[in-house]
Amino acid sequence: MNNHSIDIIGTSRDALGECPLWDDRNQILYWIDSHAHQVKARNLKAESVREWTLPSQIGSIALCESGRVLVALVDSFCFLDTETSHITHFVDVAHPAPNMRLNDGRVDREGRLVVGSMALGRREPVGELYQLDGHGNLKSLEKGICVTNSTCFSPDGKYLYFSDSLSHQLRRYRYDSASGSIDERTLFADTTSLKSGPDGATIDAQGNLWAAMVISGQLARFTPEGRLDLLIDLPTVYPTCPSIGGEQLDTIFVTSISNSGNALKSENPNAGAVVAITGTHVRGLSECRFNDL
Questions:
Q1: How far lies 288's CA from each of 54, 114, 136, 267, in Å?
Q2: How far apart are the first and last CA of the chain?
Q3: In terms of DSSP bridges, do strands 76-80 and 169-176 run parallel, antiparallel, or are they unpaired?
Q4: What is the mean pLDDT of the chain?
């Protein structure tokens, strides 16, 4: 398993790179630079990067059935048409406290977005985990979170994973796809021994959870039982989120930070880069799409 290779993709560097998504229909890698208010897209064969600037900082993005991109902004959602660059407002979010923004999110197997919020610049458990459907209905699934991260779903959609990064704990909930409700919260894994809270995460076809260890500069893989079975050292100092893509769904893309705006800043030339990991024998799943049709 140690014969994997890691490559830096291109010269693009992000202040706060996040939320890589592989569009398997068009063979394009999407990601965001939250601080630059940008959605980015890269055709790996053409090696060209397209950029769209949005009205505010971005928490996360999701691919849509229509071909658009759903963007979670500071306190609202909008659709980005990547063909015309047109932005359409969708839904507003009323945060329960000042100085908050939407953060990490992922689409469930039914085409709804599950996305969390966070307090900015402080440890205050005012973050919530929301569920948004294609009709614009927004409901709260969980409260009392400082920094929502690691949102992803088991291959069968029956379990939701997410973390409150500051707690160093990955949680698992039973997820009822039909009703969109959660229950049976359990501790899936504790990352304290890795000297980092978990940041973004993704699930592979075998149900393993891959999580970015933002402080230790590593990518960790946990089995479906929550056992740590692989650690990969990365050439970027602050990795933020993995995604599995590429033509054969066997490449792991990881975004990173060069300047988070608060605690995390690095002059390392690889800081803020997108990296590609191959040779791990991973098999990914096609990214679920938000049902906006």
A1: 23, 12, 18, 35
A2: 42
A3: unpaired
A4: 95
Q: Do 31 and 44 form a contact (C-beta atoms < 8 A)?
A: no
Integer Cα distance of 231 and 241 in angstroms: 14
Residue pair 272/13 in contact by the 8 Å Cβ criterion: yes
Domain at 65, CATH number: 2.120.10.30
- Look at residue 129 and tell me if it is in a domain: yes
Tens of pLDDT along 6-64? 999 999 899 999 999 999 999 999 999 999 999 999 998 887 899 999 999 999 999 99
DSSP 192: G
Q: For residue 284, is it within any domain?
A: no
In a domain, 178, yes or no: yes
Confidence (pLDDT) at 263:
75
Please give the Cα distance from 167 to 100 (Å, whole number): 19
